[in-house]
Amino acid sequence: MLDIYNLKDIENSLKDDNVVCVRGSHSFEECVDAIESFGKIRNNSNEVPTGQSLPEPWVEIKNVESLSQYFRFSQTKQPLHTDGYHVHGIQYAFLYFEQQAPEGGETVYIDSPKLKELLIENNLFDMATSVVFTLKKECQREAPLFDKNTEKLCWNYYRIINQLKAKEKLFQFLDGPCWKQANRIKLGSGELLIFEDNQILHGREMFKGDRLVIKGFFNA
User: What domain range includes position 87?
Assistant: First the structure.
């Protein structure tokens, strides 16, 4: 992961690392302008639970008690996953922290090389690369957790509809030893996190208090 402070450095930093954290206090509009100076933001948002398209190509992640059955609106821990599991062609995801929780809420992530190392250590690499899962949301996609040829990742436990034994075994690994050894980062208000979606599994620690994060996708 690279820590930077100037929004103008995002493009070059993403050439050097698949996780970039923009520190300091920046407005959301400034962050969007910086991303759009070299990339194209994907219009890939939908409203839970209706599935309706939103007027803006990003979504707000915040705690709403009446919708707390959804991770997006809850304070609970969110397991490791990729965001682009159900949409082809997403390159980068970004998280803008409008308001960080006073307690908890760290972003948890692990990259493809470290995941490969842990899969091999736990004798799960063959399963992770050979079992093809079907993930279904607005559309359907078939992929292994870990692509042996490209080392790209694709995973969302709650969207997998087949290979249930392998799904459970890999989930126990991801939510156990992998979760314990994953990286953790807590960003403050006005800070931005960008990561290459198919090279990173990410999640969230549980939190207390109010938290508002704006999530979007873009291709460079």
Answer: 2-111+183-219
Number of neighbours of residue 124 by Cβ within 10 angstroms: 21
CA-CA distance, 98 to 28, in Å (whole number)? Answer: 8
Where are the alpha helices (H) located in the chain, listed in sequence order?
Answer: 10-16, 28-36, 112-121, 125-130, 164-175, 177-181
The CATH number covering residue 71 comes to 3.60.130.10
8 Å CB contact between 36 and 26: no
Quote the CA–CA distance of 93 and 196 in Å, as a whole number: 6
Specify the pLDDT at position 150: 95
pTM here is 0.92
CB-facing half-sphere around the CA of 208: CA atoms within 13 A: 2
Task: Phi first, then psi: give them for residue 15, nearest 5 degrees.
Answer: -75, -20
